Amino acid sequence: MENVSLVELVSNKQIIFRDYITGFPKETDMVSRTGTIRLKVPAKEGSSSSNSVLVKNLYLSCDPYMRLRMKKVDDPYVPAFTPGSPISGYGVAKVLDSGHPDFNEGDYVWGFTGWEQYSLIDNPQTCLMMNKPETLLIKIKHTTDIPLSYYTGILGMPGMTAYAGFYEISSPKKGEYVFVSAASGAVGQLVGQFAKLMGCYVVGSVGSNQKVDLLKNKFGFDDAFNYKEEHDWVAALKRYFPEGIDIYFENVGGKMLDAVLPNMRPHGRIAASGLISQYNLEKPEGFHNLFLLITKRIQMEGFVAPDYYHLYPKFLEMMKQYITDGKIVYVEDTVEGLENAPAALVGLFTGRNVGKQVVVVARE
Amino acid sequence: MENVSLVELVSNKQIIFRDYITGFPKETDMVSRTGTIRLKVPAKEGSSSSNSVLVKNLYLSCDPYMRLRMKKVDDPYVPAFTPGSPISGYGVAKVLDSGHPDFNEGDYVWGFTGWEQYSLIDNPQTCLMMNKPETLLIKIKHTTDIPLSYYTGILGMPGMTAYAGFYEISSPKKGEYVFVSAASGAVGQLVGQFAKLMGCYVVGSVGSNQKVDLLKNKFGFDDAFNYKEEHDWVAALKRYFPEGIDIYFENVGGKMLDAVLPNMRPHGRIAASGLISQYNLEKPEGFHNLFLLITKRIQMEGFVAPDYYHLYPKFLEMMKQYITDGKIVYVEDTVEGLENAPAALVGLFTGRNVGKQVVVVARE
C-alpha cells in the first residue's frame, strides 16, 4: 500500500443529515456539502494492515425505514443518523482500494454506505449471520444480464424482506388469498409476484390509479385498488376478498390493519414488515381490532430482513433465475444525481415514486 | 324410555339474560325466573330415539369471554346470548336421562349447559375435533381425589387455554422470562405454574395486594405486582424484568400490551388469550406500539382453547398427575346458589373474585 498522504485529495460531494426531525421529512432536512477525500485506505497506525474499504458509490437506496433514523431514539435495532454527517443506507458501490481481505480493487459490492460520492467504510461485516446489519458489505458476482442497481432492491434488502416475509413468515399455501399494502413498492411488487408463483389469489392496495394499472398489467396481481379512492376500507376489502384474507403482508400500518382484521379468515397470518403510514407521526395511530386476533386465531409476526440474510445465497440464485427467465419483473424509479437524493427520499412518504426508488450517483 | 308426558313436572330455577348491553354488566342485566321441566328426554316424533341429554347442573363457570356474548354482534366465533333465554356457558352436570349413546344416567359431564337447575341439552357434540364448541359435552371419569368443580377450570376450558397458550403458542424454553397479566385468574395461575415447571422466571400482574401475596406464596411466581398501585407500567415492568420479557401471556389487553412491548426481548412471543380490560368498552383502546413488533421481531398469536381440545386426553392425564402429586395448586372462588350467579359473573370485571370463579348450583 502506498503512503496515503502522497495520494491526491479529490472532492467528495455529500448529503448531510442536518438534525432530528418531527413530522414528514423535507428536502431541507438534508443539505449538500462538498468535502475532500483521498482515494486510498489509510494504513493503521502501528499496524501494517487496515480492514477498511474505499468505495465509489454508484446506486443509493431510498427505503422507508430511513425515516426512523431521523428521530433521536435509543433503539439498537434502528440506530439514529448522526447530525452533521452524511446520510447512510444501503447502496451499490465499486471498490477503489481495500485493506480488507475479502475485497479487491474493482469489486462491486452492496451493503451499507454513505450518501456521498466516495466512502471509506471501516470494518465492514461480510458474514451473513450478522448482528450489526448496518455494517454489512457483500461482494457482488456481477454479470452483465443483471443491472447493478438491482442490488439495492430485488436482489438486496427489500428482496430479502419480501422473500422472508412471504416464504418464512406467512406459511403460504396454493389457493390462499393474499393482500399486500404499499403493493407497488420495492417489497410489495415482489410479494405479489411470489404469491402468484405459489398459486395464490393476490390483491394489492396502492395510492394512485397508475399504480393500480402497474399491479394488474405488469406484476400480474389478480386485482388492485387505490386506497385514496376508497372511503370504507373494510367494505372495499370485503368486495375484493368475499372469501376473506388468509395472508396480509403489512407494509403500511395504521387504519389499514384495523380494516384488514375483520376481513381475515380464521388462522390467517399477518407478516409485519413496515408501517410507512406511521413513521411521520409522533404518536402512532391506535390499532383497535386486536380482539379479532383472538377470535380468528391470527398469527401476526414482525420481522426484519437481516435476520434472514443467512438465506441470501439461496435467495440470490433463485431470484437471478426468475429474472433471467422473465418469471419475475421489477420496476425501479431512478433519479439521476446525488443532489436529487433528498427529494427522492422525501418522495417515498407522499408516494411520488413508482416502484423501487433508486438514486444514481454514478454508473461505473 | 317411558312416555315423557307421564313424568311429573318439577320446578326449574333459571338465570335469564334480559337484553344486549353496553358498558359493564350489572346484576340486573340478568333476572331469576322459575319455570318447570320434565326430568326425562322427550322422544323424537316419528323416531324411537333422541340425541338429547337431560342433566342436573352442579357447577357453573364464570368466564370473562361471556361478556362478549352479551353484545349483539354477528361473530360466529362468539355467538351472542338470546334475550329471554337462560345464560349458557361451561359447567359440570350429572346426567339424569339420556337419549345419546355416549351418555348414561348417573354420568358426570362437563361442557356447555344452561344457567338453570336442570338443562335439556340437544345434540351435544362429544368429538374433541370440533367446530361448534358451544355444544361440547364430555364425560368425566370421576374419581374422589379430584373435585368435580375442577372441570370448570383447571381441567376444563381455562386449563386448556393455559396449556395451549403456554406450550403450543409460546414456544417456552428453560430460563426464559415470562410475564402473565390477570395472573391469579383461572388461566393466569396455571400459566405461571407451567412456567415455573419449565424452569422459567415468571412475574404476574394482579389487581390487589391479596392477589400479589397469593401469586408469590401459593402459586410460586418469582414476583408479582399490583397494577393499580403502579402508575408507570413501562417502568414497573422494567424493574421486574431488567433483562426483558421473552413471553407475555396476554389476558387483559389495552394499555398493558403497550407497556409490555418496550420491555420485550428480541424474538419474544405474545400469546393472546383474552382482553378482559376491553370487553366492556364500546370502542377498544388503541394499541400504539405495533412498530416494536417489527424492530423486536415479535410473534403475537391469538388463540382459543377449543382449537386444541384434541389434546385434551393428554392434557387431562398430565394435569391429574400434577394435581395428585401436589406439583400444581389451584384456587377457586366458589359462590353458593344459582341466585348468586349474576353477582359472581359481574364481579369478574371488577376483579372481585380471587381465583377461578365457580357457582355451586348443587353438589350432587
TrEMBL record, chains A, B:
UniProt-listed InterPro entries: ADH-like_C, ADH_N_2, ER, GroES-like_sf, MDR_fam, NAD(P)-bd_dom_sf
The keyword Signal appears for this protein: no
One annotated GO molecular function: 2-alkenal reductase [NAD(P)H] activity
Presence of the UniProt keyword Isomerase in the record: no
A Pfam family per the record: ADH_N_2
Domain (Enoyl reductase (ER)): residue spans on this chain: 32-359
Extent of the signal sequence: none
Keywords: Oxidoreductase
Designated name of the protein: Alcohol dehydrogenase superfamily
Natural source organism: Macleaya cordata (Five-seeded plume-poppy)
